[in-house]
Specification:
Elements: E1 2-6, E2 10-17, E3 29-36, H1 38-48, E4 52-56, E5 59-60, H2 63-75, E6 77-80, E7 83-84, E8 88-95, E9 101-108, E10 126-131, H3 141-155, E11 158-161
Parallel strand pairs: 1-4, 1-10, 2-8, 4-6, 5-7, 10-11
Antiparallel strand pairs: 2-3, 8-9
Length: about 170
């Protein structure tokens, strides 16, 4: 059983502030880098729990994309989808001292997946298709998500859609 996850592969830069931000000054913080994107996170959680997962999405052929993909592969996530010129997306999450977060997002090439790029074979062996709500926010990725759902249905899995604030 493989869970397929359609959406972004990004780099998350998590900045945990140890003091409040002050304009024009430095702020002590702890910073971590990890693969991110809602669909990539779900795929990683499935793998962490011992399941098989596959991330379906477009990513850049840059150092950021190579880093994020290699970390997911180390976790046991299979990755399919076009690798293209252009930048992989980056999200900077600022977490203040109370735990509230502000996310600064650049989704890079992830939103550029087009319906004609969706390959039905990506869904072979998938028992379930998880579609990130973020995949529906911008064209052409929104139309590619629809094509992926249609392709997956011909292969048999059920599908689920998640949303986020504002979707």
């Amino acid at each position: 059983m493989t869970i397929c996850c359609l959406g972004d592969l990004l780099l998350d830069v998590i900045v945990r502030l140890e003091q409040p931000l002050a304009t024009g000054a430095d702020a002590r913080s702890r910073i971590a880098l990890r693969p991110g994107g809602q669909a990539a996170n779900v795929a990683a959680w499935v793998a962490e729990l011992g399941g098989r997962s596959r991330l379906v999405g477009k990513r850049g052929a840059d150092d950021v994309g190579l880093f994020a993909a290699s970390r997911l592969l180390e976790l046991g996530v299979e990755i399919v989808g076009p690798v293209t010129a252009g930048g992989t997306g980056v999200v900077v999450a600022l977490v203040d001292t109370s735990g509230e977060r502000t996310m600064c997002s650049d989704r890079g090439v992830a939103t550029g997946l087009r319906p004609e790029e969706v390959n039905e074979a990506w869904f072979d062996g998938c028992s379930h298709l998880h579609v990130s709500g973020y995949a529906l926010l911008r064209e052409p990725l929104r139309f590619a998500a629809r094509a992926a759902i249609d392709a997956a249905r011909t292969r048999g899995p059920g599908s689920a859609l998640t949303s986020h604030r504002g979707a």
